[in-house]
Design goal:
The chain is mostly helical. It has helices spanning 8-17, 36-48, 66-77, 87-97, 102-105, 113-117, 127-141; strands spanning 30-31, 64-65. The chain has one domain (8-141): Rossmann fold (3-Layer(aba) Sandwich).
């Protein structure tokens, strides 16, 4: 996640600014995420620690359900409510965006086990603090 224009964070924030940004579908699907600072730090960590080989999950150690993910993002931004998106509305939106609803509705509960076992520690391990920092930078860059 980064506050860059046209990225996923910017897209989610756009929904929230419009009064949307509630749970997607039933909201129980897990979202795995990583703050851009930790992503970059993890890449450098892996370059410096050549003994860590093979596949490594670059994600926060704390995935969370979509409903909670969006609630925390709304809190970080300010509004307290967000209209949920039913599956059929997501399917309609996916047609216009030329994408698949699977990207939104499929649960992804991924952990960075090998990264942490190698000694990496996260600057932003939890979503509420990451969301606050990203919202603050988005405001600063877009005011």
């Amino acid at each position: 996640m980064s506050p860059d224009r046209s990225g996923i964070f910017d897209t989610l924030l756009s929904l929230i600014r419009k009064g949307l940004g509630g749970a997607s579908g039933d909201g129980r699907q897990y979202v795995s995420w990583i703050h851009e600072t930790d992503f970059i730090r993890a890449i450098y960590f892996l370059i410096e620690h050549e003994h860590v080989d093979g596949a490594v999950n670059l994600c926060s150690p704390n995935p969370l359900p979509n409903r909670e993910f969006m609630t925390d993002l709304r809190r970080a931004w300010g509004p307290s409510i967000g209209l949920p998106a039913a599956k059929w509305t997501l399917e309609l939106g996916a047609i216009f965006m030329r994408t698949e609803t699977e990207l939104i509705l499929k649960s992804r509960r991924v952990f960075p086990g090998r990264l942490q076992q190698a000694g990496f520690s996260f600057t932003y391990p939890d979503w509420p603090s990451a969301a606050r920092e990203l919202c603050d930078r988005w405001r600063k860059n877009n005011s």
